[in-house]
C-alpha cells in the first residue's frame, strides 16, 4: 500500500472502503472523546458526592484486597499484617510513657497534611502490670463531674484497668502528663478540651485491634472536622470515630432508666454527653461502663479520676444529659460489631 493510500480518506466510499490510516484516526478520536467525557463525569461525581465516592473507592479496595487474599499463596497470607481501619490513612504518633505503647495509626477519612507528633516512648524490657481499679462505695456527686480543679492535674501518669459491660478497659485521663499539653487541632490542650478524643481512645484501645492514645484520636478528629476550636469536640466525634474503627454505635437518645439499664446488662457501654450548667461549663463526655446489683452505675470520667471510683445514680445522670439531639446526642450505645 502506498503511503498516500494509507492516509487518504475517500468520502464517496462506505466505511469498509476507508483507508487503514483514516480508520485508525477515527478510532483514536472517538476513544479520546469517550475518555474525556468519562473523566469529566467522574470529576463532577467526586466533587458533588464525596461520601458516595469514598464508599465506591472502598468497595473497589475491598474487592482488590479479597482478590489478593485469594491469589496469594498460604505462606504469604500468614505473613500479612493486620490492615488499618477502613478508608483510614495512618499517621505517626508517639508518646514518652513506658506504660502504654502508642499506635502508629491515626486514621483519616479525608486527605490531610502532616500531623504533629508526640514524643517517642523509652524502650522497656517488660510489659508493666496494670492494676484493676479499686472502687469506692461512695455515692458520686453530679456537681463534681467535669468541674475544673487545680488538684486534678498533678502531671501524673494514669495506669489502671476498669471493668465494663464489654470487658476490661484501660483508663485514659486528659490530664495525663504524656499528652496533657498536646494541642488538639493545633490550638487547644487535651487537658482542657480533649474529653471527646480521650473517651473515643479508651473504647477503641480496649475493644478493637488498634492501639491508640488520645493524641491519635485528637489528630483524627481535627482532620475529619470534629474539632471545635476553643470549645472541644463536635458531637459527631463519638459515632464518627468509633464507627471508623469498627465498633457498633447507635443513638440511645431519650432512653429512660429501664432502657439504659438493659443496654448495660446486654453487653453495651454508654457514652453520655453531660449537659452544660450543673457540672460543666461547656459540656462533657463520659462513659457509663456498667450497672451494679444495687442499680447504681460506674463511669469513666476522663477529667476526674476520683469520679471514676464512685457509684452513680443512673437516673441522676440521665436527667443531667445535654439537650442536644444532633448526631445521636446526648447518649450513644456502643458494643462490638
Structure commentary:
The chain has 337 residues and is α+β, with helices and mostly antiparallel strands. The protein is built from eleven helices and eleven strands. Helix 2 (20-48) crosses helix 3. The termini are far apart.
Strand content: 5-15%
Shape designation: elongated
Compute the number of strand runs: 11
Q: In terms of structural class, how would the helical and strand content be classed? A: alpha+beta
Mean pLDDT: 77
Strand order of the largest sheet: 7-11-8-9-10
Q: What's the helix-strand series?
A: HHHHEEEEHHHEEHEHEEEHHE
Radius of gyration: 27 Å
Portion of residues in helices?
A: 25-40%
Low-pLDDT stretches are 73-84, 86-125, 148-153
What's the assembly state of these chains? single chain
Helical stretch tally = 11
Strand count, sense and closure of the main sheet? Answer: 5 strands, antiparallel
Q: Quote the distance from N terminus to C terminus.
A: 69 Å
